[in-house]
Design goal:
This protein is an all-alpha fold. It has a single domain, classed as Non-ribosomal Peptide Synthetase Peptidyl Carrier Protein, Chain A (Orthogonal Bundle). The protein has four helices and no strands. The two termini are 19 Å apart.
Length: 76
């Protein structure tokens, strides 16, 4: 999870990703941020976040995103 937090901090260093639960709904992450994030996740964790997974619920918190990464890794 620490690696994911680092990726997120590269995008918006001023956000407390440990507690934030509205990254998309609160408009902290925009569509360009999510595209960058998906690319970084693919490189770092060797998973593909397909369009079906690109829903706000998966990106509203670092924990939700980490859970998605874990599910995708299990599918490999």
């Amino acid at each position: 999870m620490d690696e994911l937090i680092e990726i997120l901090k590269d995008i918006h260093p001023d956000v407390d990703y440990e507690t934030a639960t509205d990254l998309v709904d609160g408009k902290i992450l925009d569509s360009f941020d999510i595209i960058s994030l998906v690319s970084e996740i693919a490189d770092k964790f060797d998973v593909v976040v397909s369009a079906e997974h690109m829903i706000p619920e998966n990106f509203n918190s670092a924990q939700a995103l980490w859970d998605l990464i874990q599910r995708l890794e299990d599918e490999e």
